[in-house]
Write a structure and sequence with these properties.
Helix content: 25-40%
CATH architecture: 3-Layer(aba) Sandwich
Number of strands: 6
CATH class: Alpha Beta
Strand content: 15-25%
CATH superfamily: Isochorismatase-like
Structural class: alpha/beta
Length: 187
């Protein structure tokens, strides 16, 4: 349950890009995108920073490492794979970050961009709950940010992975609530 949002809180949306949202996910992607879009509108109306994160790990060394399990999916990368979906109305003054691993802080300018704006809290949403959202949340926690998770604005490829993050990981590093409750705290 969200108790309070810091005065300087940023919305951080993870991997709501065309290539990712077309994957098979546990929760209906249309609902996830609708709630994320509502968060964008609310943060914009409040004059708070919005961070739009996409992922491009092509050719990165970690993708070439041997893994015990075979990947469950092979991706067909199209020309528009990395574009943010049109449901998320971006603006030029938003912060755009391209991450290359699971977490949006690793080898990107995210921390510096948030520091420039005196951000002390973040609201996280996106795809996938147990990968990009959780990876970013862990790094945000290590950097001392107050974290709120919009549980109805995120999903995963696997329902049990999604539920595990929501039930066991996120409550240890932040507060978890729905979009409506988070928006109420912005006012």
């Amino acid at each position: 349950m969200v108790t309070v949002l810091d005065k300087n809180t940023a919305l951080v949306l993870i991997d709501l890009q065309k290539g990712i949202v077309q994957l098979s996910v546990a929760k209906p992607i249309s609902e996830i995108l609708a709630n994320a879009a509502r968060l964008v509108e609310a943060f914009r109306n409040a004059g708070l920073p919005i961070v739009i994160v996409n992922v491009n790990s092509i050719g990165r060394p970690w993708t070439q490492l041997r893994k015990d399990a075979n990947p469950t999916q092979r991706f067909n990368i199209t020309d528009d794979w990395f574009e943010i979906v049109p449901e998320i109305k971006t603006q030029p003054n938003d912060i755009f970050i391209t991450k290359h691993t699971w977490g949006a802080f690793f080898e990107t300018d995210l921390y510096e961009e948030l520091q420039k704006r005196n951000v002390t809290g973040i609201v996280l949403a996106g795809v996938a709950t147990s990968i990009g959202v959780e990876g970013t949340a862990r790094h945000a926690s290590e950097r001392g940010y107050n974290i709120t998770f919009a549980k109805d604005a995120m999903t995963d490829m696997f329902a049990d992975a999604h539920e595990h993050s929501l039930k066991y990981i996120f409550p240890r590093i932040g507060e978890v609530d729905d979009t409506d409750k988070i928006i109420e705290k912005l006012v």
